[in-house]
Every structure is written in C-alpha cells, then in structure tokens.
Amino acid sequence: MAASEALFDAVRGLTERDLVVALVCGGGSALLPAPPEGLTLAEEQALNRALLASGAPIGVMNAIRKHASRIKGGRLAAACAPARVVSLIVSDVPGDDPAQVASGPTVPDAVDARAALAMIEAWKIALPETVLAHIRSAASAAPDPRDPVFARNEVHVIASARISLEAAAARAGAQGVPAVILSDAIEGEARDVGRVHAALAREVACRNRPFVAPVVMLSGGETTVTLRGDGGRGGRNTEFLLAFAQAVDGLEGIHALAADTDGIDGTEDNAGAFADGTSAGRLRASGHDAMTALARNDAWGAFDQLGDLFIPGPTGTNVNDFRAILVRPPMG
C-alpha cells in the first residue's frame, strides 16, 4: 500500500504543462494494492486469492479487481489530471489490451460494475460479502474512457507476447527449423490447452499434418489452473506440460518447453519445465505418475522428480507465457 500512496503523492498537484510517463507491466495488480474506503487490505488480498483459485481468465480477473481499488481501472491517470499521461506498456495479457495490463492503473476500460458482477456469477467466484457489497455500490464505478480527463493521454504497447514469439520464430528459422506461431493469445484451463497442443504435435509426428516435420510450434497467452488437490505445487506452465507429456507418452521426436517469461511459474522457483515423449514413462519408473500429480495440481513435484524444471531466475520482464514444441522427423 505504501507504493500506491507514494504514486498518488508523486502526481498530486500537477498542472496541464506537466508530463507523466508511466511504465506499466504485468504484476502491477499485485504490487499496487489500494483498497477503497470501506475495504481493508486483507479483504483486497482475499479477493485476489479467490480470483486466482477460480480458473477465470485474466481479463475477467482484472475487470473485477478494478472495481475494488482506488488505483486500478484508470484511477491513477485520473489522479494525474490535468497533466498529460503517456503509458508505455509491457503486455502480459492475451490480446494486448492495455487496460488489462496490471489492471490498467493509467488506462480505463468500459467494463462497468454490472458486467463485473455478471462475471463473478458466471465463474462462481466466492468473494467476501464486504467486497461484493462494495462492487454493487455506486462507489465502485470506474472512470469512463470517454471522460475528457483522458483526452490528451497516449498509450503505447512496447513489448508483448506477439513480439517475443516473432523473435523466437526468426531465431528458429535462422537455425534451419521452420516455425509456426499458433497464437499469441491462447487462454483456457492449462491441462486442456496442453492436451490440444499434444494432439497437434502427435498429428505432425505421425502424419505430417497440419505441418511437416521438422517444425517448431510456438504459442503464447495465459492459461489458468483450477485448484483441485491439496498440497500440490506448481504453476500453469508446468501443469500445461504435465498434461502434454501424458498425451505424447512414448512418441519419439517431440520436445517441449513451456515457461512464464518473468521467470516464475506460479509461486515456485522455476519459470516452467521441459518435456518430451519419455517424460511420463520416466515418471512412472520413479514410482510416480502424471495422472496422480495432475489430480493434486503437483506438476512442480513431477518435473522436480525428473530433474526437468527450467529455472533461469527472474527475468525482469513479463510478456506472458511462452511455449515451444519441436517435432522432428522419425529417426532412420
């Protein structure tokens, strides 16, 4: 909360001759708590925990968050008025909507409280009653993007998943491996997305369609994990890979990396992991199995057992998830 208050102090009393340059990246939702009057920090934290456990996509989570904050949803930019605000955005959200990055402290959007309440109901998100009461009240109303206070502001996306995937594709091509970008905005349950990617990899490996091996398939976006078990460890990228590994079990020539570009997958020390057609078999040989690990949301434990965690350390940036699946032609 001290950081949020420091930002408000820094922009207090600006004039129309002042210029504010805001550097905004993923993680700002967590790093800038600012509960509105009537709510406590503990209640804002409870809101965040409920959202993370719900399996809702990031756009839904951020749309709800901004209705229980004094800084999100363009409120920081409004506090800068009448100064002009130029926002430079490092996007970590599917589709690169600037209003979604860090819940948009300097970029308002058009999602109103009624829509946020509909999202809460649709995703069956159990929020503290005090938070729900606030969102239902007029006090939760977020700034309107059409408000003249934002008329002189500018927004520029300077880094994104699209840019990272295009760079990876160019790098693969320079190494003589054709690359295809499936999408930079894939969302959904991590294990389900992993199985879909595995189906594509199997089709290429077995039938040379829809792409011809060798090929590296690239994708980005942000999947979600619905918590089902107790005591498991991991994040969305390791869960994606564990389901992927289970689905390509025994197939040769398939190799995958899935990682969070900020270097931290969930709350663990790894960015993600590596997997191939031998991963599930090696896990069984060690006395474990992928299905049980998935049931416990313990993908970190599974890949730690295999020694296949990817641990580069924090990268200092975040353009969402990065997935690369290399399919090689059959040997011989």
From TrEMBL:
User: Is Isomerase there in the keyword field?
Assistant: no
- Which GO MF term does the entry hold, naming one? glycerate kinase activity
Q: Does the keyword Acetylation apply?
A: no
Q: Enumerate the InterPro entries for this protein.
A: GK-like_C_sf, GK_N_sf, MOFRL, MOFRL_assoc_dom, MOFRL_protein
Record-linked Pfam families: DUF4147 (PF13660), MOFRL (PF05161)
Keywords, A to Z, come to: Pyruvate
Task: Please give the name of this protein.
Answer: Hydroxypyruvate reductase
